[in-house]
Design goal:
Blueprint: H1 2-8, H2 13-41, H3 49-71, H4 77-85, H5 94-115, H6 117-123, H7 150-172, H8 184-199, H9 209-224, H10 227-234, H11 238-257, H12 264-274, H13 281-286, H14 302-311
C-alpha cells in the first residue's frame, strides 16, 4: 500500500494546498449543514439552535485540524483575501484557494442532501421549497429573517466577519498571547461558536462566501430552483460581499490597534521561537513568516526575513 501512495503523491505544492482547503471546507460544511438538516427535518426534536452552533463550531475545529499543516487552513475566501491584503499570502494563489473552497462546500452540501434525502422529502411532503413552513433550502445556504433589510443584513455580516478576523488574528499572534499551537483550531471553533450564539438570529452568520455559495449552487442544481437566489429580496450576494468587507475591516482594526505596536524585542524573540514551532503552519502564516521549503529544519527564509525587516512590517474554518 505504501508503494501505491508513493505513486499517487502530488508534487505540486499549490495543488496539495488546494486539495487541503477543499477537504477542510468539506468537513466544516458536512458537520455544520448536517446539524441544520437534523434540526430542521426532526422539527427541533433531535436538536435545537445550539446544536447548529456546535455543528459549525466543531466542524470548523476539525476542518482546521485536517488542513492546517498543508494549506494554513483558511477555509474561507474572506480569510484568504485578508491574508493577501496583509501580505501574508501570495495573491497569485487566491483564485485557486477560492475555487477549491467553494468546490469543497458544494461537495459537502451534496453529501448532506444524500444522507438526509428521505428526511428532507418526508419533512417537505416531497416539495423542495425555499420559503414557507416546510422550506428546506435553509439547510444548505443562509437566508435573512423576514424583518431584515438587505442593508441591515449587510451590516450584520460585516460585523460578524470582522469579529471573526480580529479573534483569528489574535489567536495567531504569538507576540500578543502565546497560545499552544495545538489549541489554535479549538479556539477558532470557539470563535465561530460565540458568533453563532450572539449574532446568528438575523441571517444565519454565514461569515464565509464559500460556505454560502457552494451549498446555494448545489440547492439550485438539485431542484430548489432559481428561488434560492431571489428569496429574501435577492439576498444571495450579501453573504458573498459582506464577509469580504468585514474580514478586511477586522484585519485592519487588529493590526492598527494591536499588532503594529508590539515592541521590536518581542518580534526578535518570536522569530527565534518560530524555528522551534515550525510544524504549525497556521501559526506561522498568521505571523507572516514564509518557510524556506528547501531548508531541512523549516526555519524562516533568511532572505525573506531581511526584506520584511527592512520594510518594517510585522505579520495570521
Amino acid at each position: 500500500m505504501d508503494s501505491v501512495f508513493r505513486r499517487v503523491r502530488i508534487e505540486s505544492l499549490l495543488l496539495r494546498q488546494c486539495l487541503a482547503e477543499c477537504l477542510g471546507v468539506y468537513v466544516l460544511i458536512v458537520f455544520g449543514c448536517g446539524a441544520v438538516a437534523q434540526v430542521t427535518t426532526s422539527e427541533n426534536t433531535k436538536g435545537q439552535y445550539l446544536s447548529i452552533n456546535l455543528g459549525f463550531a466543531l466542524g470548523t475545529t476539525f476542518g482546521v485540524y485536517v488542513s492546517r499543516g498543508v494549506s494554513g487552513a483558511h477555509m474561507n475566501p474572506a480569510v484568504t483575501l485578508s491574508l493577501c491584503m496583509l501580505g501574508r499570502h501570495p495573491w497569485r494563489t487566491l483564485p485557486f484557494y477560492v475555487f477549491f473552497q467553494v468546490f469543497g462546500a458544494f461537495l459537502a452540501a451534496a453529501t448532506v442532501a444524500l444522507q438526509y434525502y428521505d428526511a428532507i422529502m418526508h419533512f417537505s411532503n416531497g416539495q423542495l421549497t425555499v420559503t414557507g413552513p416546510t422550506a428546506t433550502a435553509g439547510i444548505f445556504a443562509t437566508y435573512p429573517a423576514d424583518y431584515l433589510s438587505l442593508w441591515s443584513g449587510f451590516v450584520d455580516q460585516v460585523i460578524g466577519t470582522g469579529m471573526l478576523l480580529v479573534c483569528i488574528l489574535a489567536v495567531g499572534d504569538r507576540r500578543n498571547t502565546r497560545i499552544p499551537p495545538e489549541l489554535a483550531p479549538l479556539l477558532v471553533g470557539l470563535v465561530v461558536l460565540v458568533i453563532g450564539i450572539s449574532m446568528g438570529v438575523n441571517c444565519g452568520y454565514a461569515l464565509n462566501p464559500a460556505r454560502d455559495l457552494g451549498p446555494r449552487l448545489y440547492s439550485y442544481i438539485a431542484g430548489w430552483g432559481e428561488q434560492v437566489f431571489w428569496a429574501g429580496g435577492g439576498w444571495w450576494w450579501v453573504p458573498l460581499v459582506a464577509p469580504c468587507v468585514g474580514a478586511l475591516v477586522g484585519s485592519v482594526v487588529y493590526v492598527l490597534l494591536i499588532e503594529a505596536h508590539h515592541p521590536e524585542l518581542d518580534l526578535h524573540l518570536e522569530k527565534a521561537d518560530q524555528c522551534q514551532t515550525v510544524d504549525n503552519k497556521l501559526a506561522l502564516e498568521l505571523e507572516g513568516v514564509e518557510l524556506d521549503l528547501n531548508s531541512p529544519k523549516g526555519c524562516p527564509n533568511e532572505g525573506q526575513e531581511g526584506k520584511k525587516a527592512a520594510s518594517g512590517k510585522g505579520e495570521e474554518g
